[in-house]
Amino acid sequence: MARLGTGIGWRPEIAEAVGRLPGLDWVEVVAENICPGHLPAELLRLRERGVRVVPHGVSLGLGGADRPDPAKLAALGERALALGSPLVSEHIAFVRTASPALEAGHLLPVPRTRDALDVLCENVRIAQDALPVPLALENIAALISWPGEELTEGQFLTELVERTGVRLLVDVANLHTNRVNRGEDPAAVLDAVPWEALAYVHVAGGVERDGVWHDTHAHPVPPVVLDLLAALRSRVDPPGVLLERDDDFPPEAELAGELTAIRTALTPTGRPTDRRPTAAPAPVRPADGGLPAAAVGEEVRTRLGIGQAAVLSALVAGTPVPEGFDRRRMAVQARALVAKRAGVVARTAPELPGILGGPAPYRAAFAAYAKGRPMASGYRRDALAFAEHLLVRDLPADPAARRRLTAWWRERAGARPPRGLLRRLRALLGRAA
Fold this sequence. Notes:
The chain is α/β, with parallel strands linked by helices.
């Protein structure tokens, strides 16, 4: 297992700044955001300098009730090979359900139950068999807790490693998030984690609002998260540590300062250092020696799928909150999902906020559209569906804005518009003429 050192999440918005950061050992890229045949020039230049690149997946949903999608696994492996990566990483989360077919557009927590652990372990084995490099899995941040959990976070992670030999990506910011939101003790998790499985560590910022910690990746890393990084360092010398920043990017000097703060937290003397550890941990081996695991019964996957579908449906389709869940936290999570969805749609179709009069009117219109309308098939289709939703209701109210939205939709829509929309568009264009 390669030693990684200190790195940062590579994003197009800060690509030039990342290329100038001193002492940078490696970067992490969101796997779904790059194409192996068309790698960004800035990323290629980093590789030429010897900076390692690790793909970080967000869409596998290995904690879901269904087996991993072979196409998604192949795509993740393809990116690892194209980048010459020593490993790939993903999350202990579910992101979709098959019945009903719903997409969260976000990482949601799996219940810490025996059923969920059995399914996760089998899914991880499937992924490991398909991937050309080792796999590391990340503990996620969560707003909600499942009722009736049977294992602690530490027990869940330990047994996952023992049964699969998978590596761990420990996110200390997520430990803090779960301390605030779910009352979990980060020290208990740090004491229980099988450190021989550690691949690397994530550090990120967030913000607390009304007693809820939002893991935004858009704020500076707070001292409390750096304290957790130091607590982790007191237990193990991590092979790699990475700063995540996904939005509201600060000036280059601030990014460099945050990396210096991370290096300081990793140094027992309390002084920043660029020292890279030399000793790599021994390979992790499953407790069963890597023998094929017994297949999970379909009834186990069905039980897990029913529970996950009830939760996701309540969050994105407005169905009743399942018994035992905190209704307030579920409402906060539902609003957060809509806000994230609106943000991604705005980045996918940046013209829409301008057409609708700015970020605030856009977000208000999108929230009204998303209520009870789950995302069907990706953010590009979601942007088109949002525009269709407005146009069939003769919105926006300003005729000039409505004409601009009509033109925008016509340039991007397929050959078969939804029922009723073509008639309204013809009428609108007739009035415009």
